[in-house]
Amino acid sequence: MLLVQQIIDNKEAIIEGLAKRNIEAAPILDKVIALDEERRATQTTLDNTLAESNKISKEIGILFKNGEAKKATILKEKTGQLKETSKELSTQLTALQESLKELLYTIPNVPHSSVPNGQSDEDNEEIYREGTIPTLAEGALPHWELAKKYDIIDFELGVKVTGAGFPIYKGKGARLQRALINYFLDKNTAAGYQEVQVPHLVNEASGYGTGQLPDKEGQMYHVTADDLYLIPTAEVPVTNMFRGEMVTANQLPISCTGYTPCFRREAGSYGAHVRGLNRLHQFDKVEIVRVEAPENSYAALDGMVAHVKEILKELQLPYRILRLCGGDLGFTAALTFDFEVFSTAQDRWLEISSVSNFESYQANRLKLRYKDEKGKKQLAHTLNGSSLALPRVLAGILENCQTPKGIKIPEVLVPYCGFEWID
Hints:
Helix content is about 40%, strand content about 20%. It has about 425 residues and is of the alpha+beta class. The model has no long low-confidence stretch (mean pLDDT about 95).
């Protein structure tokens, strides 16, 4: 979340930045500043009251020591009143602090200056495209038909076991999933990311730390008996490993990668655009997360984008990169690049990765700070990216690599799969 002092010092710039998100921010920023002024005034009054109470308490001790019990008794009555006032002020201060925090939680991150204006995903800016869109043989099928034809993914059986959006992978489909996970992890660790295995459930503090709560509370599966949440992405547990930490400059950058299943209660809709693997409630994803010094974070973002590009080039999938506009930017992100693979059988682009810089927005929620070489303490920057989300990568492979003979596995995956064809 934004720092109060940041809002006070840069109010007009923040208003201008949030306008890219199509938000009229002035009223809420004014409310933040007013609440903070009230909080500061209450804190000052409380501090003065406590100081006066401490001073009188010392005087009472001296009076009793000097045998002036009557005067001491009168002052004791006054300290009783001051203690009651202090208690009331403490309650007021806690309420003000909570109100201020809740208000700050409702303000999204300020977009980077390079973020284009726009209302929706239709206004995103394509900045790069690579790969040749294949020409498929007559009768080419979408992935959900291919899955049935080759008996590698069973959507109906998943409905029986759990419900819509929970497919069951079978045979070569399951092996291809495992191959993709191992390939992604190997690529990430070779690039310097430390592999971690993390819990698939997180507590409320973790949800607030990375910004899923309260913004996306309705999209998360909540285990109410234990007040835990199934993770929507590995970003949440991996980034929260550093919640409340003070790291030193020589520890940066911190680079982690992890595989997890992901769970999302996204509102369902109907049609081919959400059919099959296009939108699921449970899916697998390999994530990369970085903690950086502020001056290095945008160079790190460029490096993460280049890393995902290399993976897609090796998979030989046609893809493009979009710079998200303000209206499509995630709540916590300052700048996001989306990768989309072209699905030839569906004749449409499918999002397969988002790579984002959150600057200090998450770090402020997490209280993740670092000490620079001069000993100065400041908030770190956090970044994350999908490297990669499996469902639409798998859909792209099935659809773009289909031939009359069967589905040709990308060469880079053959050592991981142990087979060259699904036929």
